[in-house]
Amino acid sequence: MGSISGKAPIPAPRLSKENNNNNNNDRQLRGEVDDLRGEISSLRDQLNTQMQMFSEERRRWEQERKNRSPSPKTQFRNATHEKRTANRSPSPKTQFRNATHEKRTAVLLSNDRLI
Would the N or C end of the chain have less CB density within 10 A of its end CB? Predict the structure, then answer.
């Protein structure tokens, strides 16, 4: 009997058809993942562009609305309010608010006491 010197040989992995197919599948899947990432990136860019465009359009519409004359509904409401208040005499509070500074600070006398 001969003596075995050293360590036993380490088996090398076999290259089989299965192993080759797995590598091809992995490469194919990685390629699909990269394609999907690129598509997601381009869709995100499109969405951001559209959001910015709509934001600018909204600002423009709001500016146009501010510059436009009042709506017919607002004009009607104002005219109705003016008709209702035209025949009324101003309330004491309104008279006081609209009075000059001298009238507001004047001392009022009532019989025997200051008011």
Answer: N
